[in-house]
């Protein structure tokens, strides 16, 4: 047989030949790498083919918003039936292309504010959902069966050779670029400015086919900024319990924090409460998390040795640049983030702590609510046991001794949910049955969308106490330990008081007084910063909060 | 607003505080005020709750019964002005008010 041809596919290099044809059409239109903004839609029509897998970059921070709009303006007769493979559905054009028939199939991770409209489009048959992924899963599939043919990406700056500088929001760019560029795909970048020389090369120019200077800088959302003014006394109480009952108990040094007010409260009492307990240098030394402004006081107090970030946060750029001992900084002086590496680091850390909307009696938790498709994002990868881990650390081994009391000794990652028993409007966090079951039926999903599975979870912290699921020997005990911290919800009120006392004696249920948490201290007075302005002060003026967070 | 009243047996026959003083523990925040007073209720306890959220009488009954039981209270009047607070806040404020009261008596 002729070694140069594959009988079934008409050659061994059909993807590359197809790529050459696309680039030839593109160059015929725009002549070179630099594309005038008003030619963008025409370029997309020239290089995208019907049925293509396409990625429009966008995640928690930056978005290729100009390219998303340009694609939405393409003629559906020319560009149609696309298969969108991207992490985040956040902007209106991401869904406009489904309404107009430009796109048909969707594999994604997270929908956030577009969750309601996405649900409506799915119901109307306009969007065929392949699957909802975690970030690492979708990136993984970029390198197996979902490699994009064309990717539309965003960067801070480009030179005329196509070298890209992403700035501190590198985020998902490396994963998208690597998969697309090395499997004969087309890369088109929108940049805020075209310059003679980029401050640093985050993506080499010979991987990039086209760059467009967008009329407006790409959209960035400050989604990790939590105003300390909104933190409640209850959150302070829960944070005190986390510090004494988990961080101090296990000696947790490597961890990932969620992004809610609950974990912000922990960060803000490190310099006060944890400091008084003599825990500086003993807990919270290495974090995988975005540069959340509420981390500033803990960093300034010398608690945190190093932080690797999935993305940046608006207003934190200068502060981060001036703290290169703590953050990962390029030779140019700005941060380099990377979602894949941050997710990886967090997966193999000692602890994940986050928040959720509902928890059932097995400890399964979900943020799914009726009528909305929100998706998973990164929490399931952070918030799961790392069964491939082999190296020991004090926290991992201590948790492992509780988890594996007989047989082969093992370690255990700590996976913690921190929730109030009731949410606003007195809707209970603890339920017998997750709404996720109904959502599965409504949207014809293969499984209920569970964020963190009960068998991955080790602790639940509420204002009432801590359930240590590692010390429960049966599902019945686990259910009682969960009821024991479920407060006055229906689930909590149905507890078996005798069994709870037995679990408490074993340490599977812990109340504040059992771990020396003095409720009288549970007040906002314990917060190292009580306002955004306090955070600016702690940062020596380096933190520049977005206008909406300034009230002075 | 809804006014709820709950009576608990407490510890019948307990005399009012030896000093005879009506001590008061008060805590307040944006969402809740709690006042605890020692009064002669023949050993019983009384709780008066002004609440803005209807239909949670059952929950209040449980929260307060637990509090009286856990602390072994007698001759105590609890006045609660609830600004739509969750049980979490109620329990925290009650515990804080009681801690303040005990400290004052020491």
From TrEMBL, chain A:
InterPro entries: MadA, NagB/RpiA_transferase-like. This is Malonate decarboxylase subunit alpha. The gene is mdcA. SUPFAM superfamilies: NagB/RpiA/CoA transferase-like. It comes from Ancylobacter mangrovi. It comes from the Bacteria. GO terms for molecular function: transferase activity.
From TrEMBL, chain B:
GO terms for cellular component: cytoplasm. Keywords: Cytoplasm, Phosphoprotein. It comes from Ancylobacter mangrovi. InterPro entries: Mal_deCO2ase/Cit_lyase_ACP (IPR023439), Malonate_deCO2ase_dsu (IPR009662). It is found in: Cytoplasm. This is Malonate decarboxylase acyl carrier protein. It comes from the Bacteria. The gene is mdcC. The keyword DNA repair does not apply. HAMAP family: Malonate_deCO2ase_dsu. The modification O-(phosphoribosyl dephospho-coenzyme A)serine is found at residue 29. Pfam families: ACP (PF06857). Covalently binds the prosthetic group of malonate decarboxylase. The keyword Cytoplasm applies.
């Amino acid at each position: 047989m002729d070694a140069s041809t594959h009988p079934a596919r008409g050659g061994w290099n059909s993807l590359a030949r197809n790529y050459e044809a696309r680039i030839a059409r593109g160059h015929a239109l725009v002549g070179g790498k630099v594309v005038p903004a008003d030619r963008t839609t025409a370029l997309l029509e020239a290089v995208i083919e019907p049925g293509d897998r396409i990625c429009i970059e966008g995640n928690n921070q930056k978005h290729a918003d100009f390219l998303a709009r340009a694609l939405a303006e393409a003629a559906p007769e020319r560009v149609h039936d696309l298969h969108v493979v991207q992490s985040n559905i956040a902007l209106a054009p991401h869904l406009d292309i489904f309404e107009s028939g430009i796109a048909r199939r969707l594999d994604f991770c997270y929908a956030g504010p577009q969750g309601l409209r996405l649900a409506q489009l799915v119901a109307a048959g306009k969007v065929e959902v392949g699957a909802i992924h975690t970030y690492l899963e979708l990136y993984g599939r970029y390198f197996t069966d979902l490699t994009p043919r064309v990717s539309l990406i965003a960067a801070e700056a480009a030179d005329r050779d196509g070298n890209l500088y992403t700035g501190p929001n590198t985020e998902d760019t490396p994963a998208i670029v690597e998969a697309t560029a090395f499997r004969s795909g087309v890369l088109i970048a929108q940049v805020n400015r075209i310059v003679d020389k980029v401050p640093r090369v985050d993506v080499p120019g010979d991987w990039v086919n086209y760059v467009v200077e967008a009329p407006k800088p790409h959209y960035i959302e400050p989604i990790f900024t939590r105003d300390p003014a909104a933190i409640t006394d209850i959150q302070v109480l829960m944070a005190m319990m986390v510090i004494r009952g988990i961080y101090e108990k296990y000696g947790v040094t490597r961890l990932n924090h969620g992004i809610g007010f609950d974990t912000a409260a922990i960060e803000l009492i490190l310099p006060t409460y944890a400091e008084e307990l003599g825990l500086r240098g003993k807990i919270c030394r290495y974090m995988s998390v975005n540069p959340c402004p509420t981390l500033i006081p803990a960093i300034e107090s010398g608690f945190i040795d190093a932080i690797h970030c999935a993305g940046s946060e608006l207003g934190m750029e200068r502060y981060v640049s001036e703290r290169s001992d703590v953050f990962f900084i390029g030779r140019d002086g700005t941060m380099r983030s990377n979602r894949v590496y941050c997710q990886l680091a967090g997966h193999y850390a000692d602890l994940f702590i986050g928040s959720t909307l509902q928890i059932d009696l097995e400890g399964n938790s979900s943020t799914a609510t009726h009528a909305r498709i929100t998706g998973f994002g990164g929490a399931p990868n952070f918030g799961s046991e790392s069964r491939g881990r082999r190296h020991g650390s004090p926290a991992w081994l201590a948790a492992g001794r509780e988890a594996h009391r007989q047989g082969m000794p093992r370690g255990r990652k700590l996976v913690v949910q921190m929730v109030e028993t009731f949410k606003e409007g007195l809707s209970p966090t603890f339920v017998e049955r997750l709404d996720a079951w109904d959502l599965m039926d409504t949207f014809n999903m293969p499984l209920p969308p569970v964020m963190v599975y009960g068998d991955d979870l080790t602790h639940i912290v509420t204002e009432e106490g801590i359930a240590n699921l590692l010390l429960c020997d049966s599902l019945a005990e686990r259910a009682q330990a969960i009821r024991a911290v479920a407060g006055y919800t229906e689930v909590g009120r149905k507890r078996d008081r005798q069994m709870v006392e037995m679990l408490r004696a074993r340490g599977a249920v812990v109340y504040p007084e059992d771990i020396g948490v003095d409720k009288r201290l549970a007040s906002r007075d314990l917060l190292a910063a009580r306002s955004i302005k306090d955070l600016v002060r702690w940062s020596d003026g380096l933190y520049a909060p977005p206008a909406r967070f300034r009230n002075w | 607003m809804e006014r709820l009243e709950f009576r608990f047996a407490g510890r019948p026959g307990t005399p009012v505080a030896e000093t005879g003083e009506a001590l008061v523990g008060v805590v307040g925040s944006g969402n809740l005020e709690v006042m605890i007073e020692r009064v002669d209720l023949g050993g019983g306890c009384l709780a008066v709750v002004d609440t803005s959220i209807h239909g949670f009488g059952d929950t209040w009954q449980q929260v307060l019964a637990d509090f009286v039981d856990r602390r072994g209270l007698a001759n105590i009047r609890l006045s609660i002005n609830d600004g739509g607070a969750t049980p979490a806040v109620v329990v925290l404020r009650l515990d804080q008010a009681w801690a303040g009261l005990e400290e004052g008596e020491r």
